[in-house]
């Protein structure tokens, strides 16, 4: 069985350094929380951004980038382009795009929210927190902003505040998959993998769960030494390219604590923990 130090041990350092983007699953979909499609921007029956394979994301980045070059003042195109850029890992360019959108639409709540998420993805956590809080309205709080705020607070080490934000988001939108996933990953950061798994399983069971939720669950299962189950969760019902990308991610994170060889070796015992 893989040893997990609590509460500020090796696993916390790994998760903070290697998978901040996974923790911040609520940030990945910009103001649309991952449900944006590119069909309205020039392609019919396009998949959701969160369900695109790497090659589909690269194609979407080229197409929407061309539209952005033509219409840099178009709010919808700019926000869509920033979302795609973050999904492909180009956080600095996504931030630059959203900075321009925030200048052009300084009072637009949705733009401010997306700008805060871009700041967080680029590592500007304190600035992101300020922007997210400025976008929020106390009389009509947005669950997406509360979940995003929680993810930022988790990265700042303000765990209790983060979990309080997630629970407030769940009060507004019960059983929302991305918020449950964020809450689960919060427990990963403090080494409580069993609690993390319970929230992530609940998240994965929701009808709005996407592949990133299952990737988080696979990661937590793998960190507990159940390699075969983690591999199944990371690859089942996915196109080959996406399954391979998920496995590459899982291997990368687990290998950082020298876990991959241990987990592979455990296959001889059927993937059981000891």
TrEMBL record:
GO terms for biological process: protein O-linked glycosylation via mannose. PROSITE patterns: PROKAR_LIPOPROTEIN, TPR. Residues 1-28 form the signal peptide. The keyword Signal applies. Pfam families: TPR_12, TPR_16. GO terms for molecular function: mannosyltransferase activity. It comes from the Bacteria. TPR repeats lie at residues 143-176. InterPro entries: TMTC_O-mannosyltransferase (IPR052384), TPR-like_helical_dom_sf (IPR011990), TPR_rpt (IPR019734), UCP035836 (IPR014596). Keywords: Signal, TPR repeat. This is Tetratricopeptide repeat protein.
């Amino acid at each position: 069985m893989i040893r997990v130090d609590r509460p500020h041990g090796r696993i916390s350092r790994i998760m903070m350094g290697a998978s901040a983007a996974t923790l911040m699953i609520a940030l990945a979909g910009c103001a649309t929380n991952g449900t944006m499609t590119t069909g309205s921007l020039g392609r019919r029956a396009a998949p959701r951004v969160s369900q695109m394979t790497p090659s589909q994301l690269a194609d979407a980045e080229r197409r929407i980038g061309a539209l952005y070059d033509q219409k840099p003042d178009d709010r919808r195109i700019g926000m869509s382009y920033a979302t795609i850029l973050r999904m492909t890992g180009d956080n600095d360019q996504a931030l630059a795009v959203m900075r321009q959108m925030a200048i052009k639409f300084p009072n637009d709540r949705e733009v401010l929210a997306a700008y805060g998420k871009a700041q967080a993805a680029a590592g500007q956590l304190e600035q992101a927190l300020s922007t997210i809080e400025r976008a929020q309205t106390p009389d009509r709080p947005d669950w997406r902003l509360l979940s995003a705020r929680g993810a930022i607070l988790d990265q700042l080490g303000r765990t209790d505040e983060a979990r309080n934000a997630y629970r407030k988001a769940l009060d507004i939108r019960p059983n929302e998959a991305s918020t449950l996933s964020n809450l689960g990953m919060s427990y990963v950061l403090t080494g409580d993998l069993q609690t993390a798994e319970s929230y992530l399983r609940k998240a994965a069971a929701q009808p709005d769960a996407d592949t990133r939720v299952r990737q988080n669950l696979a990661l937590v299962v793998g960190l507990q030494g159940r390699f075969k189950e983690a591999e199944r969760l990371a690859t089942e019902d996915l196109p080959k390219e996406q399954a391979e990308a998920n496995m590459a991610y899982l291997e990368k994170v687990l290998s950082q604590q020298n876990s991959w060889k241990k987990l592979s070796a455990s296959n001889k015992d059927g993937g059981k923990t000891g």
